[in-house]
TrEMBL record:
It catalyses: a 2'-deoxyribonucleoside 5'-diphosphate + ATP = a 2'-deoxyribonucleoside 5'-triphosphate + ADP; a ribonucleoside 5'-diphosphate + ATP = a ribonucleoside 5'-triphosphate + ADP. Homotetramer. It comes from Tumebacillus amylolyticus. The gene is ndk. This is Nucleoside diphosphate kinase. Its cofactor is Mg(2+). The lineage of its organism: Bacteria, Bacillati, Bacillota, Bacilli, Bacillales.
């Protein structure tokens, strides 16, 4: 069965949206395998977003993700990687479809509430990075 790494970003945690976001994935039918609040280190932030290290907004991105705690989660279920991305909506909330998490709760691309792995390879890499591969079943 497929697994993915999802993370409520600092803006979502500060705005009290952890419960709402967990609830959406639970109601959809996915299974929560692990979760924790984490104060992200500079090293973890850079490693997590390594693919974006050449982007002009990389410093802003790692600065934001390390600014206050995030809520990292591992979810399991058929097609969970693509379905979670669809439920999140487009990267830029201004382009995200109505009913998606980013459309419902965000207005700026930098503070867009949630992260979700974008491929099976990145899902396994991120689960290993954030949870050391340690999840429940
Ligand atoms: P995420 O990886 O967080 O799930 P994503 O896969 O939709 O988002 P990526 O291209 O991986 O988008 O970018 C990672 C994050 O970097 C985005 O979620 C967003 O917060 C930030 N970001 C992307 N593009 C920009 C931009 N042009 N300016 C500022 N921040 C950006
Ligand atoms: Mg991404």
């Amino acid at each position: 069965v497929e697994r993915t790494f999802l993370m409520v970003k600092p803006d979502g945690v500060q705005r009290g949206l952890i419960g709402e976001i967990v609830s959406r994935f639970e109601k959809k039918g996915f299974k929560l395998l692990n979760a924790k609040l984490i104060q992200v280190s500079e090293e973890l932030a850079k490693s997590h977003y390594a693919e974006l290290s050449d982007k002009p907004f990389f410093g802003e991105l790692t600065g934001f993700i390390t600014s206050s705690p995030v809520f990292g989660m591992v979810w399991e279920g058929e097609g969970v990687i693509a379905t979670a991305r669809a439920m999140m909506g487009a990267t830029n909330p201004a382009s995200a479809a109505p009913g998606t998490i980013r459309n419902d709760y965000a207005i700026s691309v930098g503070m867009n509430i949630i992260h979700g792995s974008d491929s099976p390879e990145n899902a396994e890499r991120e689960i290993g990075l954030w949870f050391g591969g340690e999840t429940l079943s």
